[in-house]
Amino acid sequence: MSLTEDQSPAISTGDGPLVPPALRANPLRDARDRRLPRVPEPCALVVFGVTGDLARKKLLPAIYDLANRGLLPADFVLLGFARRDWEDEDFESLAKKAAKEHARTNWNEEVWARLADDIKFVPGSFDDDEAFDTLSSTLDELRNSHGIKGNAAFYLSIPPSMFPVVLKQMERTKMADNTASGGWRRVVVEKPFGHDLASAKELNALVDDVFTAEDVFRIDHYLGKETVQNLMALRFANQLFEPVWNSNYVDSVQITMAEDVGIGGRAGFYDVTGAARDVLQNHLLQLLALTAMEEPVEFTAEAIRTEKLKVLRAIRLPADPGAYAIRGQYQQGWLAGERVPAYRDEKDVPADSKTESYAAVRLGIDTRRWAGVPFYLRTGKRLPRRVTEIAVLFKKAPHLPFSHTDTEELGHNQLVIRVQPDEGVTLKFGSKVPGSMMEVRDVAMDFLYGEAFTESSPEAYERLILDVMLGDATLFPRNEEVESSWRVIDPLEEFWAGQEPEPYRAGEWGPKAADDMLARDGRSWRRP
Ligand code: BG6
User: Fold this and answer.
1) How far is the CA of 489 from the centre of ligand 1 (A)?
2) 259 lines ligand 1 (CB under 6 A)
3) Segment (H or E) for 64
4) Is the peptide bond before 318 cis (omega within 30 degrees of 0)?
5) Mapping DSSP to helix (H, G, I), strand (E, B) and coil, where does residue 389 land?
6) Which homologous superfamily does the CATH classification assign to the domain defined by 223-393+474-519?
């Protein structure tokens, strides 16, 4: 396809009902148009909390990867802000070390040298008015010296308790003001977004006070993963799956996000958060929403968020949470041949902590499409391996016509979207075993990203940081989604409050109570 064709707005997304359905029914069309790399306008990316784990392991490496792929604007500045007595060079060397250690793409000294010229640092603490005045005037100076045109995105890679004070500083200095800056000003907020519905609402109100709604980017990095976006391609670019994607054919859905790691050095955050708030409230409910949503009318932020929100609002909690909402905490055990400590023996975790490192729940979705189909969600730390997947289990064939068939082992047909690792899709179905008997057994057909495509998948943060600079909010949950998700989590937390979590041994697939939960329904968890 020629360049002109690729860029031509053949079907405008704002055409409304006058456009025949056949022309409108291709929500992925915009994605196809985006095959040409999109490069953002000149801008600065201001990172608060540059010395934190997230900045070092994800954000700074992602910025290098974007530079290496030629996706940063020619006029770009990376501006760090932290309570350190540093010069620009000190921050540059921290960023270089982080990028060298964690970047996805090959190291290229020339790329770094170009980026290094555009790395700046402003020292200060969050309650220091003078430091924020300096930050604001630095941005003004960069408009001329680096041609950033007043455009800036502020990345809050800081504890949520610090959000209010930083936002207030941005309001005071007018740094959040599009008009005053003469460009665009955007804010990126990391999860967890609030601690419950009430605090999320408070935070939303505060952010919306300082920034306009379309300039707020709430990060759920799972949405930046290629395989998660592929879920939409799989469902809406194919004819094969959508007709059976409903309660007529689907028996149940299992969404798993398992990690073999423990809590590392994050006890301060994790012990007041727990698995349900850390992962269930955001990553897993977003995966559920994408799995269950209706086809968006177009592939735009507004249309996709609207469909996800409808699902989140239709979630039905278990009537009997004691049986269908399970939380667990790992005990000492073995992983990869090494002895690992119990959760309560991790550094800085109180010896009597009741925080869960595992959570599993059965949810329903009260819509015509999903009535009666259970969605089982689980997440946990110190499970046998790191794996995230969405498994759609289909109903068994209502009748088998073979007279001498050994179908004992025949399970449900399954479509498994492997989010990570081994990114891809597996289809499981029954097949004849070679031989004179009509014996049928489950087999698997695999699609592997690594084999099908030559280009490796970008890291979630590369995609999301790029989208922030482009102003594309498609992969960012909006505040109503966050609030609806808390509406699901709050009653569970209330039910669990004060209860001892169920024990499970590190290196095993969670507590027995979680297996019992599925057994009660005549089902069992997949072993991913
Ligand atoms: C984060 C959670 O959002 O996701 C962490 O706070 C978790 O507890 C992490 O380890 C997992 O991310 P990924 O991309 O490695 O699956």
Assistant:
1) 18
2) yes
3) helix 60-68
4) no
5) strand
6) Dihydrodipicolinate Reductase; domain 2 (3.30.360.10)
How far, in Å, from the CA of 525 to the mean position of ligand 1? 22
Question: Looking at 146, 283, 399, 412, which residue is catalytic?
Answer: 283
Query: What is the b/e burial string over 452-484, where b = at least 16 CB atoms within 10 angstroms of the residue's CB?
Result: eeeeebbbbbbbbbbbbbbbbbbbbbbbebbbb
Q: Which atom of ligand 1 is nearest to the CA of 460?
A: 14
Give just the sign of the alpha carbon dihedral 331, 386, 267, 498.
negative
pLDDT digits (tens, 9 = 90+) for 26-69: 444 444 445 567 889 999 999 999 998 899 999 999 999 999 99
Alpha helices in 280-406 (DSSP H): 285-292, 301-314, 321-324
Q: First vs last Cα of the chain: how many Å apart?
A: 40
Q: Where in the chain is the domain with CATH 3.30.360.10?
A: 223-393+474-519
What was the pLDDT predicted at 35? 57
Question: Could you confirm whether 283 is annotated as catalytic?
Answer: yes
Cα separation, 411 vs 41, whole angstroms: 52
Q: Can you say whether the dihedral through the CA atoms of 359, 364, 370, 373 is positive or negative?
A: positive
Fold held by 43-190? Rossmann fold (3.40.50)
Residues 484-502: tens digit of each pLDDT: 999 999 999 999 999 999 9
Burial of residue 8, with CB atoms counted within 10 A of its CB: 0-12 exposed, 13-18 middle, 19 or more buried: exposed
| Whether the Cβ atoms of residue 126 and residue 165 lie closer than 8 Å to each other | yes
Q: Please tell me if the CB atom of residue 423 comes closer than 6 angstroms to any atom of ligand 1.
A: no
Record the pTM: 0.91
Paired tokens of 463: 């995609």
> Are the C-beta atoms of residues 413 and 428 closer than 8 Å to each other?
yes
Rounded distance from Cα 381 to ligand 1 centre (Å): 10
Classify strands 76-82 and 502-505 as parallel, antiparallel or unpaired.
Answer: unpaired
Nearest to 324 by CA among 517, 190, 47, 171: 517
Residue 260 token pair: 């073999």
